[in-house]
Amino acid sequence: MVLLLAVSVVLFGCNSGTNEKSPNAAPGNTSQASGPDKASNGNAVANTTVTMAVISTWNTLNIYNTSGNYGNVVADQLFERLVYREHDGKIAPRLAKSWKMAADYKSMTFQLAGNVKWHDGQPLTAKDIVFTVKAMTNPAVDNYYRSAFNVLAGTDQNGVAQNPDSLGVEAVSDTEVKFTFKEPKAEDTILSAFLSFLYVLPEHILGKGDVSSINKSDFWKAPVGAGPFKFVNQVPGESLQLEAFTDYYQGSPSFKTLVVRVVPATNLTAGLINGDIDVVAMGSIPLSDWETVKSNSSIVAASVPDFSYQYMLFNFSNKTFQDAKVRTAFDMAINKKLIVDKLMKGEGTVAVGPMPSYHPYYNAKLKPNEYKPDEAKKMLAEAGFDFNKEYLMIVPQGNQVREQSALLIQQDLAAIGVKIKIQTYDFATLLSMLKNGKSDLGLLGGGSNIDPGESSVIMKPGDPRNYSLLKDSKWYDIAARGYSLYSFNERKAVYDEYQQALVQDQPYIWLYHQNNLWAHSARLTNVPMEDFVWMNFATWKWRLAK
User: Fold this and answer.
1) Each residue of 148-202: pLDDT tens digit?
2) Which class would CATH give 37-79+227-304+517-544?
3) Burial call 48-65: b when 16+ CB within 10 Å, e when fewer
4) CB-hemisphere CA count at 13 Å for 332?
5) E-state strands within 200-283
6) Under CATH, domain 309-514 is a member of which superfamily?
7) What is the chain's Cα-based Rg?
């Protein structure tokens, strides 16, 4: 959730003699066609382009092997999920129009929407969901999100099913699917931690060969989904062009082309003002530009409180950081309030743990470490910390507040005698370096869903999202206890304990919760910017203003 959240854009087009953008056209030179296309459901599809911006690139179109929310931005356009979450935490139907938890909390049955089609015209049925779950729990298939499947009967703690025939998923009919769990589970746990990111894959395409070949399939070069937009082409690392799926079961999008374009945060405001960008989908407007954006009548702006979190991680393969006293000293040396006040201009809050104070499971009794640099320096000396060594902190490019916060952290740590060298990398390179232990410290964010145990995956030994290379499972084990409960009060007690343990031991430095400063062109309406925090973009609902 890496999470937090996580959150993930393009300029590209066809050069086929139409009035749309060509690959080499300057941004914003989209011209209107003489008239709209007609979707098969009777809706008009305006022959124009809408450009959605993200500040960093997705690293693959393989939705089960993407490594961050930028990939989920793309996945939400191409593929279908059973449910999604609105900003206030409410679960809303998508592919599943209704669901029912069994009285013993050990299974859930979902009724699917009818007349759902894949982009190639084939029907999507419950059998596709069964295929997807069996494929993504197969030990021969690498799956970044596999641990989410470990609630199902027939899986181990890592979400692997050695025997697919014993897996807890069944197509009751073409429009009804049933999931069976190992043990009673809370409905919200299933909906948020599992089904919000269960993207359905086409069995009629990927089910023909050996399941172990799925990740290497050419399918991912031009994927066929069932979402509101179809794949057209991409320039890896730069842009992705999509076309409205006129047979989309929830109604065709109102415009023909959606371009997802990677845009540096510093260029977002100019892009919005001059018309190169229509929607900022992942990555906030720079705070220095926020007043300009809010005051522009051609732009609709929103500051949206987020459930995600930003954190500093330690490389636990380095013995220095295995000492809780060292980690706590680092936490006490960092002036987080200055980050919020100076860099974020109050558009956020200081983090005590992964959950913000408005989270329903937040432990209001938490007592964070106070900002006490003198005491922090003393603690490091007592721990035998090596002040002569220079420690490498790596930071992903694109998030301006995160990049600038690295400089403030560097200054704070220098004040207690800790030497920090900062290097920035693109997201994919940075994650590779972290996985291989090529740095001492790193800055990342998480928060992909509202489940209180979402953050525990970054503390789970062996999980691909455990970029700190942490091997001690004690923090994850506490969260896992809460994960197995289904009463709110019982779960709340466990997650209060979990949050307290994180403050006591500081396996990560929780920095801040940043409001999302999002905006879109006033030529668009019905854009649910408040829901973007959960990778819910609902692009089929967007309308071009008349």
Assistant:
1) 899 999 999 899 999 999 999 999 999 999 999 998 888 888 887 788 779 999 9
2) alpha beta
3) bbbbbbbbbbbbbbbbbb
4) 21
5) 229-235, 239-244, 255-262, 279-282
6) Dipeptide-binding Protein; Domain 3 (3.10.105.10)
7) 23
